[in-house]
Amino acid sequence: MEDYIEKFKELLIDYTPKVLTALAILIIGLILIKFVINMSKSVMKKRGVDETLQKFLGNLLSWTLKILLFVTVISKLGVATTSFAAIIGAAGLAIGLALQGSLSNFAGGALIMIFKPFKVGDLIEAQGELGMVKEIQIFTTQLNTPENKLVIIPNGALSNGNIVNYTAEGQLRVDLTFGVSYDADIKQTKDVLMGVLTSHPKVLKDPVPTVNVSELADSSVNFAVRPWANVADYWDVYFDVHENVKIALDAAGIEIPYPHSVEIQKQG
Q1: Three-class SS of residue 104?
Q2: Are 28 and 72 in contact (CB under 8 A)?
Q3: Cα(10)–Cα(5) distance, integer angstroms
Q4: pLDDT in tens for each of the 268 residues of the chain?
């Protein structure tokens, strides 16, 4: 019995400093981790990092630091960490391979949230889809198409492809082409077309709209009509100008040519 008591005393003497040291490291480490997390959140907030990305990166940093702290604490207790670290590394590799696509999407989402090529409410074209950005998540981005369809695009593909942001500059040029007869007077036609543009309330005065001859086609003289509009007014200008041009050209007696077919009969 006395031998067991002596051994217990020896173990107590040997391990008490280790336990106290490990406990101190654990407490100080948790305090430092909390401080680092709060500081990182503050920095990300000041730099305008997306709130979703802030939470995700904060949690990722927290768990990473806590795992390192745990390994440090058990090493102070005399537990061999070599095999433990190998297990963590192997598990990390397996998880990484299994979630390769998801990690790519996460990285893409992080890049989108950091560099902000678009934001919620922007009209964009990407991955063959055109729509208004409804939501930017950490793995996917949701678009609402003009037909009110919901399109979900993985952020990995989105961040690595071409993105056309129609909203970013605030204004869009509406590219239209109208053809008139070769018999029409060019100056009169330009005046009529320009009158349609300048009289429309949603066509911007600056940049100035333009009307120019763009092509001498087979059966028509084509005019490039280029009004500018705010993004929200694009479709109003697009459809209204088409309608108003037809009305104005008819009123001015300017013919809009259309395809003619000629029937040839062979007499036998």
Answers
A1: helix
A2: no
A3: 9
A4: 556 566 655 655 666 777 777 788 888 888 998 888 888 888 888 877 766 667 767 777 887 888 888 878 877 776 666 656 666 666 665 655 554 556 788 888 888 887 889 988 899 999 999 999 998 888 889 999 989 999 999 999 998 899 999 999 999 999 999 999 999 999 999 999 999 999 999 999 999 999 999 999 988 999 999 999 999 899 999 999 999 999 999 999 999 987 655 555 666 5
Answering whether pTM is above 0.70, one says: no
3-state DSSP of 52-96: HHHHHHHHHHHHHHHHHHHHHHHHHCCCCCHHHHHHHHHHHHHHH
- Identify which of 206, 132, 140 has the alpha carbon closest to the alpha carbon of residue 167: 132
Give SS3 for 143: strand
Backbone φ, ψ for residue 54 (5° rounding): -60, -50
